[in-house]
Amino acid sequence: MTNETDSFVNEVDESLRQDRAMGLMRKYGPYVAGVFVIFIVGLIGWQVWRDQTVASARRHADAFAAAQALVEAGNVDGAKAEFERLSNEGPRSYRTLARMEHAGILAQQGDLEGALAGFDSAAESAPDQIMRESAQIRAAYIAADTQDFAALRTRLQPLIDSDTRVSYLAKELLAVEAWEAGETQLARDTLEQLTLAFEAPDSLRQRAQIALSVLGPAPATPETPADGASAPAPSEGETK
């Protein structure tokens, strides 16, 4: 009798559990199914986006290489047109590279203002610090020929403050342009910093040492007596 009672109780418990489960499914099932569908759709969408992104990157890589081949073949105008097109479409990194290549061609053709604007645009659109500073230093070299020293120094300061190797190129350009602008002490101080920058490229440090030797040491400043102090009295031999 006890076994039959236990069996009956177990059947009732199982039936209650099934009813409870069915009730929960009826109540929350649509929401669970909706979340699952959203997850699947999102997963498929991410997969499609990734495939399209990879395919787009490959297409633009091929187009970029083709434009570079035009330069090597001597078709500079064709390359310039292609780089200009690529600078406005595709992945951000390739847009930035295309803008720098287009600006470089403009500089070679003598359009320094257009080249400067192109490198500035590339720096603004750069996806990382390396590409941004590469565009900025190339813009600075052009600005050295098109802008005054104060404007150039403003351009160079963020690069000088950087912790990358581009900072050494920026300091070298600052020293050269300071020298030409008559800021010899600034040029001398900057060159001395470069000669002591052991992490800088050896060739750059050597150029700094050569420039420093040509510039020469700072002129000695005569000592002037303090206000109210009398000059030393001449010796006996000097009074005769």
TrEMBL record:
<dbReference type="InterPro" id="IPR018704">
    <property type="entry name" value="SecYEG/CpoB_TPR"/>
</dbReference>
<feature type="transmembrane region" description="Helical">
    <location>
        <begin position="28"/>
        <end position="49"/>
    </location>
</feature>
<feature type="region of interest" description="Disordered">
    <location>
        <begin position="215"/>
        <end position="240"/>
    </location>
</feature>
<protein>
    <recommendedName>
        <fullName>Ancillary SecYEG translocon subunit/Cell division coordinator CpoB TPR domain-containing protein</fullName>
    </recommendedName>
</protein>
<feature type="domain" description="Ancillary SecYEG translocon subunit/Cell division coordinator CpoB TPR">
    <location>
        <begin position="26"/>
        <end position="152"/>
    </location>
</feature>
<keyword id="KW-0472">Membrane</keyword>
<keyword id="KW-0812">Transmembrane</keyword>
<dbReference type="Pfam" id="PF09976">
    <property type="entry name" value="TPR_21"/>
</dbReference>
<keyword id="KW-1133">Transmembrane helix</keyword>
<dbReference type="InterPro" id="IPR011990">
    <property type="entry name" value="TPR-like_helical_dom_sf"/>
</dbReference>
